[in-house]
């Protein structure tokens, strides 16, 4: 769409040449800025709106609007994304209440990330199997592609130093504003709208922030407070633009549906750019491509399917999103969900969706959706850092590569833990009074749900890799989950969320945290022999009580995904616990009977794990397995391999020996054959699971090679 500048009138010409007596309003008070109305304050005196409403008229330092650069008569205004060259970083749209800040260094890194994955996007959009998945649907709430009436020469008029000065100005005055206005305010939305509040965690009693607050307010003290924003707000995409983009997307979809296959491939390949029109200047295409990419979504039919799949198959067991609030925002074109959350939910929805487009090219579709979500994440597009915790948790449902330290679930869970600690999610905010100036109760409940979901995922990830958990028991004081914690913003308890599963899973992960504590290098150095066995026996008793309670409550007996997954994690933890017992017994040459008992327990658990995966495959539930399902299958395969290896070792020693008997040889032969059959079932289960988690294919290949080696060894012994 082309925008034109109206010719200057005689009146405007006189205004340019004749001095005017009208004052230049350069600074609005906080209330008028939020309401988006004109403020008539002069020299920061109380404005008429605040005086009439009998509220304090405060002025935020650092939000002064910059003078717009003069546009030459007859010049053609450029789109926002066309204002910068390809070497500049991504810009934010101009706002009538704030200057137009350009990207930070983090956003420049995000831009580089998008550039490196251009080939993946091309492959995703060129395939006829999923071309409509990558067709455009710009985000109609927050967008960086807002049209502006700034001339193409604005880059020279507004030097980058102004943006640096703005950021420094905000950083210099944020703490002062918090100390002056935030502590004394009785409103939770003192600095921003209640739905977009940025909070600060005061820390423990040794922190500087705690004692700084005591200087002004000795009593009472709270755990979290609202805090000023760290950068100007982003300007939303106008409703007219959103409707125009949606109409363009619908027309493009209908046109593609009517064309022939070859024509459709060509059309979709050319329309892979998310926006309706491409930039005219090739030198300016790169920043525009970034803006278009992060505001692109699958067509509505696929988008709805992904969101429904997420809330049907994932959120009931991984409740990091308030379903009622998300769906209400998704249906409202004027109040869309946070951009990073929308991309992240689509990512996980694509993982579990049975839509034909997702099934045909699941990993490519997920790679495109992950790239967009991560780009928005790296830009710190959202002020509410809770959204970053939620997005990082959802990122664990995507496998980027084979790196298990600086990417994938282990990395993103570490990021989520760090941000959660930073904003105080590990603290029990229910202790704070329910007052207008404190966090709303629905937000506190959401924080608790997300914290305990993060706790479960982090513990299971640390258990998989044998690495320290980022969450320690002594570092948080959150009470255990209860039914009221699952009451959403709508006021209702979400019937789709499996509350009993979440509570039992949390209890099991607390036991797992103690199991990992026994294997910590510092603990293993001082806790050995009888002390280690006593602690292991205590954990064994806790596991037994947990399973008995699970059975008595009716859980764990059905073939629902929640029950199967609980049994899966229980048997995985049993194997890890008895690994500690076997290591201790080997170190101290204990009674061989104890070693045999430990191996039998591990063997039984591994067989149950394989059965769980077979049931999940039969019921078409493997897509719902999170990343730690790979841990369970690998642990079972290792235990089965050890059993086969042990049986083959006994056969090798007994073969031709003076003490060998026909009965013992037959028994060990049958054990080896049974183990090989179970190992073959593991390989089949791994093949099925690799459809959703490709790294399981590596597990399958390893144990298929072991299966062949063990089979050859058994044939040699029998000859």
From TrEMBL:
Keywords: DNA-binding, Metal-binding, Nucleus, Transcription, Transcription regulation, Zinc. GO terms for molecular function: DNA binding; DNA-binding transcription factor activity, RNA polymerase II-specific; zinc ion binding. This is Zn(2)-C6 fungal-type domain-containing protein. InterPro entries: Amide_Lactam_Regulators, XnlR_reg_dom, Zn2-C6_fun-type_DNA-bd_sf, Zn2Cys6_DnaBD. It comes from Sporothrix brasiliensis 5110. One of its GO terms (biological process) is DNA-templated transcription. Pfam families: Fungal_trans, Zn_clus. Residues 1-27, 66-160, 240-285 are annotated as: Disordered. PROSITE patterns: ZN2_CY6_FUNGAL_1, ZN2_CY6_FUNGAL_2. The keyword Lipid metabolism does not apply. Residues 10-23, 75-134, 265-285 have a biased composition (Low complexity). Residues 141-150, 246-264 have a biased composition (Basic and acidic residues). Residues 28-59 form the Zn(2)-C6 fungal-type domain. The lineage of its organism: Eukaryota, Fungi, Dikarya, Ascomycota, Pezizomycotina.
């Amino acid at each position: 769409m082309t925008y034109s500048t109206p010719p200057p009138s005689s009146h405007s010409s006189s205004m340019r040449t004749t001095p005017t007596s009208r004052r230049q309003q350069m600074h609005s008070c906080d209330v008028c800025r939020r309401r988006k109305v004109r403020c008539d304050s002069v020299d920061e005196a109380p404005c008429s709106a605040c005086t009439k409403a009998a509220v304090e008229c405060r002025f935020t330092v650092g939000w002064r609007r910059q003078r717009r650069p003069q546009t030459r008569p007859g010049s053609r205004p450029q789109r926002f994304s066309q204002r910068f060259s390809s070497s500049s970083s991504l810009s934010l749209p101009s706002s009538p209440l704030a200057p137009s800040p350009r990207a930070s260094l983090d956003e420049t890194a995000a831009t580089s990330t998008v550039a490196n994955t251009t080939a993946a996007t091309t492959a995703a959009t060129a395939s006829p199997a999923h071309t409509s998945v990558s067709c455009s649907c710009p985000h109609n709430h927050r967008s960086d592609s807002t049209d502006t009436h700034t001339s193409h020469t604005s880059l020279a008029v507004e030097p980058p130093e102004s943006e640096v000065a703005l950021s420094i100005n905000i950083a210099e005055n944020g703490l002062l504003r918090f100390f002056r206005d935030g502590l004394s305010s009785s409103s939770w939305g003192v600095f921003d709208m209640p739905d977009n509040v940025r909070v600060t965690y005061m820390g423990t009693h040794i922190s500087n922030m705690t004692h700084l607050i005591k200087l002004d307010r000795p009593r009472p003290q709270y755990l979290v407070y609202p805090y000023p924003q760290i950068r100007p707000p982003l300007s939303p995409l106008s409703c007219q633009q959103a409707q125009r983009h949606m109409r363009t997307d619908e027309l493009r979809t209908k046109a593609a549906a009517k064309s022939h296959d070859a024509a459709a491939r060509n059309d979709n390949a050319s329309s892979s750019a998310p926006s309706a029109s491409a930039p005219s200047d090739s030198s300016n295409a790169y920043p525009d491509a970034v803006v278009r990419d992060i505001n692109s979504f699958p067509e509505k039919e696929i988008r709805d399917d992904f969101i429904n799949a997420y809330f049907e198959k994932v959120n009931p067991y991984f409740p990091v999103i308030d379903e009622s609030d998300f769906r209400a925002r998704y249906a409202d074109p004027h109040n869309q969900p946070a951009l990073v959350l929308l991309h992240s939910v689509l990512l996980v929805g694509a993982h579990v969706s049975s839509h034909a487009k997702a099934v045909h090219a699941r990993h490519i579709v997920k790679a495109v959706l992950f790239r967009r979500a991560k780009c928005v994440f790296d830009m710190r597009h959202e002020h509410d850092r809770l959204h970053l915790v939620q997005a990082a948790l959802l990122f664990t449902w995507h496998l980027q590569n084979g790196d298990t330290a600086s990417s994938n679930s282990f990395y993103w869970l570490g990021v989520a833990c760090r941000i959660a600690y930073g904003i105080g999610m590990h603290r029990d905010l229910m202790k704070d009074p329910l007052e207008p100036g404190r966090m709303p109760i629905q937000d506190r409940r959401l924080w608790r749900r997300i914290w305990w979901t993060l706790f479960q995922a982090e513990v299971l990830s640390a258990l998989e890799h044998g690495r320290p958990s980022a969450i320690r028991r002594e570092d948080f004081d959150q009470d255990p989950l209860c039914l009221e914690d699952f009451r959403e913003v709508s006021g209702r308890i979400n019937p789709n969320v499996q509350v009993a599963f979440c509570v039992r899973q949390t209890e099991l992960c607390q036991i797992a945290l103690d199991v990992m504590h026994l294997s910590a290098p510092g603990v293993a150095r001082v806790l050995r022999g009888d002390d280690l066995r006593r602690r292991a026996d205590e954990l064994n008793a806790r596991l037994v009580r947990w399973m008995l309670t699970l059975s008595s409550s009716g859980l764990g007996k059905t073939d629902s995904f929640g029950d199967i997954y609980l049994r899966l994690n229980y048997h995985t933890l049993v194997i890890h616990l008895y690994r500690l017992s076997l290591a201790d017994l080997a170190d101290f040459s204990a009674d061989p009977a104890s070693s045999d008992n430990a191996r039998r327990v591990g063997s039984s658990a591994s067989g149950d794990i394989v059965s769980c995966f077979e049931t999940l495959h039969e019921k078409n539930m493997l897509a719902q397995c999170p990343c730690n399902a790979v841990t369970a299958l690998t642990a079972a395969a290792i235990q089965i391999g050890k059993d086969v290896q042990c049986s083959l070792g006994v056969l090798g020693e007994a073969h031709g020996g003076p003490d060998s008997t026909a009965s013992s040889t037959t028994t060990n032969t049958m054990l080896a054959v049974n183990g090989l059959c179970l190992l073959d079932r593991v390989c089949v289960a791994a093949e099925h699971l690799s459809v959703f988690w490709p790294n399981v294919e590596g597990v399958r290949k390893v144990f298929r090679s072991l299966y062949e080696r063990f089979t050859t060894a058994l044939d040699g012994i029998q000859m």
